[in-house]
Amino acid sequence: MAGNWKMHKTPAEAGNFARLLRQRVAPGRGVEVIICPPFPALAAVATKLAGSEIGWGAQNMHWEPEGAYTGEVSGPMLQAMGCRYVILGHSERRSYFRETDEEIRKKVGAALACGLRPIFCLGENLATRRSGKAVDFCRRQFKDVLEGMEISVPDALVVAYEPVWAIGTGKTATPADATEVIGALREEAARLFGREFSARLRFLYGGSVKPDSMPAFLEEEEIDGVLVGGASLDIEQFTAIIDITADLRGNND
């Protein structure tokens, strides 16, 4: 369960949320939980979550370890803040800041090289979905970023499928929509990295995830978790999602 806070919460607000989250998420429930606050809130979150099972990550990074890149943050800096994960290629970075697959490829490679786990996001817009080309489009994004990259173990990477047309638009993807795309991506992973790697690679679904909508997605075998946006800002909704997931996974076991 990964919470993407986007551009929300001051350090004080983030620290208070992290404190509450630690109190309400019991250890040993079999669900990996991480939150990804804005850069200024990372220190506050790290302080409150240190020593717990809950992890934290960043929402972006530059591909260079240091240099004259005003306003950017590097992988080693994030590591120094205790980050285990970093979200890369989010649809908002692609659309608002014009990030290309080539830039995202460099960021993913840099994150892997310094020991951070990328949450690599991809997904199609509404026009591509309506044209019937969603699967091909997402497979190309996956291939363009990851082909030829050396990834030693599948745990080093997480892939998040986020249909752009289902994020904050009132439109919703179905579990069948998500399974079709993720199934194709898993096949592409098998082609690039081998069948065993592909079977263990974790795929998340992200698209206006809410407590009432996410169980149907997690019941799909192809989907290993969710990337939560707005609902991760609310302690009640986010902990409900975590509790539901723990119950579902427990029942499946």
From TrEMBL:
GO terms for molecular function: triose-phosphate isomerase activity. Its EC number is 5.3.1.1. InterPro entries: Aldolase_TIM, TIM_sf, TrioseP_Isoase_bac/euk, Triosephosphate_isomerase, Triosephosphate_isomerase_AS. The keyword Manganese does not apply. Coiled coil: none annotated. GO terms for biological process: gluconeogenesis; glyceraldehyde-3-phosphate biosynthetic process; glycerol catabolic process; glycolytic process. It holds the Pfam family TIM. Belongs to the triosephosphate isomerase family. This is Triosephosphate isomerase. It comes from Thermacetogenium phaeum (strain ATCC BAA-254 / DSM 26808 / PB). The gene is tpiA.
